[in-house]
Structure to design on (170 residues):
């Protein structure tokens, strides 16, 4: 008797769990839209050979960040360094903090970029933004992807993409 009562309870729980799982629909596939386009200038590149390849120390003298739609400059990129690795197989693993000053309010931001790619064909990176700018504070809690193109090795360009179909819109 106890066994049948326990069995009935477990069956009910299992049936309810199965129904809940079947009722779930997959989340929509993220779609990305270009938010910002930028360029910076590499002024030198001292390198260190390591066990996985070459640790690059790209010294960047600065650059600009523009609205991807209007082309209007929205920030100045301050000098920084990319201390990524170019592996022996040719893959590039960028690792940098881009310090910027927003044109609209003069506030600063740090954009942490890490990823993987190829210096010649481009690299994709995750970007995390931290800023105290009232205008751009929405960036603190959003997900970004960057695409770097280094067809001109001394003046790479990049685009920052945000999720277009996010539930919390920037």
């Amino acid at each position: 008797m106890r066994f049948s009562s326990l069995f009935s309870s477990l069956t009910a729980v299992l049936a309810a769990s199965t129904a809940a799982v079947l009722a779930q629909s997959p989340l929509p596939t993220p779609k990305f839209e270009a938010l910002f386009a930028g360029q910076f200038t590499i002024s030198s590149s001292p390198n260190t050979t390591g066990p996985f390849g070459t640790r690059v120390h790209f010294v960047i003298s600065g650059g600009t960040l523009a609205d991807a739609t209007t082309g209007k400059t929205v920030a100045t990129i301050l000098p920084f360094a990319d201390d990524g690795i170019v592996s022996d197989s040719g893959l590039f693993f960028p690792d940098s903090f881009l310090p910027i000053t927003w044109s609209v309010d003069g506030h600063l931001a740090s954009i942490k970029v890490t990823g993987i790619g190829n210096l010649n064909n481009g690299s994709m990176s995750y970007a995390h933004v931290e800023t105290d700018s009232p205008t751009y504070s929405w960036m603190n809690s959003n997900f970004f992807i960057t695409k770097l193109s280094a067809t001109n090795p001394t003046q790479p360009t990049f685009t920052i993409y945000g999720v277009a179909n996010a539930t919390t819109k920037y």
Remarks:
- The chain has one domain: 32-163.
- The chain has a mean pLDDT of 85.
